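Page 42, continued from yesterday. The earlier attempt failed because a stray header line got pasted into the input along with the sequence. Redoing it now with the clean sequence only.
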Amino acid sequence: MMNKQLQNPLVSPTPGVLPPAQLRENAPPDEAASKPPAREGERPREPKLLGNSAERSGLAGTLALPGLGSNTASDVGGYVLLAHHPQIAVTKLLGRMVGSLLIGIQFAPVLLAAPAATPTAPGTILDIGNRRQVFIDRQFLASARDVELVVHPPRKTGERTIVPDRPWERNDLGCYSTVIKVGETYHMWYASHPGLCYARSKDGISWDKPNLGLAEYEGSKDNNIVVGHGAGGMEKISTEGVVFYDPKAPEDQRFRYATRISDELKDTVVFSSADGIHFRLTHQKVLTFTNPEGRQHLDSQNIIFWDDRINKYVAYMRRNQYAPRERNRSVARSESDHLGGFAEVQEAPIVLQPDPLDMNLGGKPALDYYTSGVTKYPWAQDAYYMFPQAYFHYLPGQLAEFPKECPVNAGPLDTRFAASRDGITWNRFDRRPWVGLGMKGEFDSKNARVFAGLMPSLDGREMYMYYLGCDTLHGWGRDERNNRLLTAAGLAPTHDTNVISRLVLRRDGFISARAAYTGGEFTTPPLKFSGRELVLNVDTSAAGLLRCELLSEKGEPIESYRLADCDVVHTANEIDRLVKWRGKSDLSALAAKPVRLRVEFRDTDLYAFQFR
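This time it went through. Structure tokens are written below.
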């Protein structure tokens, strides 16, 4: 007789891996009750390391991991979970640590004291309606086996989307630009020395710099300047700011440009426009700060947008900190029911800052976060993404190139990634570069700085973002001394120009729930949905497989929607893959009733699901 486990292509018969029902964490009550009691004299089942079949031996309530100190461990449903450092897991413990491997479900909170989002409380039913659901935290993983949350970096196109090829751009582009798609047009506002310039596109790939006739530069109005040199009523304007589309504004003010006017006028003001081209100053002192010691700034790209989840304006601001042994750049957040009314920057709560897991050199913090690039994801429920620019500071006496004398405020920047369900508590996952530096000799070898804006492709299958890349370090050009030291260290720019380039990722493609090669599964908490069918954003590639099952609130399989009834999803890399049970997809009889979704899969990435 064939082994029953071998009949299921989604579950590997790997020795030491328990059957799915025994491995599920926080199993529903009926399942837990069905487990047979231990025989007399039999040792209780040893907990398994999440996502790994290695036996554990002598593992008590606290683990001492080399270099990490004490870490509280909890045994939940047969798993060992590390409370303080959940992004680090142990592959095998036999009295000593043999190695480490990223396994199970990965979470790393922004601050060590701030935990990642907790599982849904018992008895809670999540009303998801017909909205798309993405993976941010453990919200949909009430129980899980051999599943990890994986962050997916975008694909660099290498395109030179915008280059400073016009006289008024003076061979330079600023770091703080914005892209927005309204209707059939992609709009880009990019910073250059005269102020704010404008480009437009029909596909987000090829861009046009129209001659607008709004500003005079060196005796000509044939340029694309929209604020500065007379445009927008301003002669001089800061090259730092963000454009956002405001659905609550009057029609003649739907496009907002939040920026400083100059280094002397440091408060953030707002210019408004009906078309994103003809701007006028409409709001003074939208973001402000008190600066008795001269240490706060409102430079960089401070983000403002209307948050339709809470029906308020939200601002993410650069907040400087100067306490002993702290790097100064952090991200603070404030909200207001009108444009303005935000907390002063130094009083706004910090939502992202360097912590003890971040870079230190010689006992001094060497990393901080320049900008946030926060966006509320418009195509799923309760999803926010942050793209903080990590700035590594060269410090004297810590690098061979600078044994004594060091350039001031100098170093490279790349872009990292974080995700949140509320815009306040952020998961940083593995903390790896999301858009890393290019190779030596490439245009983005010293700076890779993602700016505001997340655009759909024309076919809706992909998303576009954009970044400024250059081979010029922060601090280059500050003064002759900095240039001399960086040149002597072999760190002077070779291209000496800035390029805006396009990034590509699949729709919903920031994070996936990934099943192990040998198979995994998860079950959601109770959900209430509307709609008639279930679709998945899924990538099985060639050898992956997936099946779905619908359970009652208590965890009992629902007739006709069992795993055995589900048509196996295979050979699928689709944004909206329809799930069927024996050829049928109609779920309308279950709409508005509490159900759990169970997904059993192997060697597959699941990016999103939606009842519609």
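Notes: Residues 342 and 348 are 8 Å apart (CA to CA).
Reminder to self: strip header lines before submitting.
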